[in-house]
Amino acid sequence: xxxxxxxxxxxxxxxxxxxxxxxxxxxxxxxxxxxxxxxxxxxxxxxxxxxxxxxxxxxxxxxxxxxxxxxxxxxxxxxxxxxxxxxxxxxxxxxxxxxxxxxxxxxxxxxxxxxxxxxxxxxxxxxxxxxxxxxxxxxxxxxxxxxxxxxxxxxxxxxxxxxxxxxxxxxxxxxxxxxxxxxxxxxxxxxxxxxxxxxxxxxxxxxxxxxxxxxxxxxxxxxxxxxxxxxxxxxxxxxxxxxxxxxxxxxxxxxxxxxxxxxxxxxxxxxxxxxxxxxxxxxxxxxxxxxxxxxxxxxxxxxxxxxxxxx
Length: 311
Prior knowledge:
The protein has helices at 2-17, 66-79, 114-132, 186-192, 298-310; strands at 22-27, 33-41, 46-50, 95-98, 144-148, 153-157, 195-203, 217-224, 228-233, 254-258, 264-266, 270-275, 280-284. By secondary structure, the chain is of the alpha+beta class. It folds into two domains: 1-134, no CATH class; 135-311, no CATH class. The strands form three sheets. Strands 7-8-13-10-11 form a five-stranded antiparallel beta sheet, with helices on one face. A hairpin with a 5-residue loop joins strand 1 and strand 2. Helix 2 (66-79) packs parallel to helix 3 (114-132). The two termini are 34 Å apart.
């Protein structure tokens, strides 16, 4: 185990050798900001990840426990390691993480934290990638959806587009970063629950334009056959996923209920509504940000097609 951790530590130190200082202020839909500064000490082969300047504890449940911050930092630096190493504590040895007490990333009880793991974790990851200049933002949200009644309950996350980076485009409709779930098969969903899955398609054109285009999000439509209460927990319904190096941001997501009487209820990023038989829940997930300024050069456009095939 010592060898495994020592090897992981050295792998992350090699990543640090190639990094530059960076910083980013990541604004969330609520207006709260996650601010991160990365400082590289080349002599010591260490990096400090400092979240000083992050907004104070929130009255909502988007606060994240300190452990979530550590997990996001570990994830980001592990993705920068090209070597095939097991994930372990050694990755964190060369990293000093500074989290200001009382901020939304280090809340004290009785702060609510349910969205910290599923939403704020994504924002932390996006802030780190931006500070490091690695790639554009992907969905930046898990697009959490729950619905149910006295007899049925269901929870799922819906995939979005991933962000593009230098030399690669984003991917369409994929779970990104802190997500690790798969959707229920349509046949199983309709067999077990009184719903009909009317649409689950790629949301064409929602990825940000760029030298490398961001991935497209999804459109998911679920028709209820019984009265249901639906709730959503998501981000990037107000602030679009950022592009990088001149690339355009991805499209905003949207959550709504289309009712049988023709009216539409906008759920916003986080909302709840009581729905009747025949009402349709519509989730449009964000697109990923693009990377680099779009080029009119046909040869470069051809290279982008080759990148898509390789991806």
